[in-house]
Design brief:
The chain is α/β, with parallel strands linked by helices. The protein is 44% helix and 21% strand. It has a single domain, classed as 2-Layer Sandwich (Nucleotidyltransferase, domain 5).
Length: 146
Amino acid sequence: MLLAVDLGLNTAWSLWDTDGLLQDFQSRRFTNRTKLKSGVPTILRSLPALEVVVAEGDARLAKVWFGFNKEWETELVQAQNWRPDLLPKRDRRSGAQAKEKAIQLAADIIRHDGCGKGQPDRLNHDTAEAILLGYWAVKQRGWRFD
């Protein structure tokens, strides 16, 4: 399994199987870094066995996620690493435009993969970006080819 995490106090994650299919996605708001540091282990313990954890954002927050288990492959990226592969330049002219397009694309992935999490059109941008990060990561690893 691959876990993709959009780091921050408003954090979101997506979970992918080795066939490159979206299995789950969630988000959570932490009130401060202390709550985040104590909440991450609970989140990680609730997930199936992971092989890879890919995170986007602050390196200090990535250490919280990456440090939970030293056996995982870990990768820290920034939006500029994955966005150009998934969003055409015309959809990245502004942050707001990129976030809106990310929500649309993430909803398409949810529907395509049959993830069954309710209403994909009601995603927030953090969750959408966690889904797109995961989609990009599984494609980079050759787990998915569409």
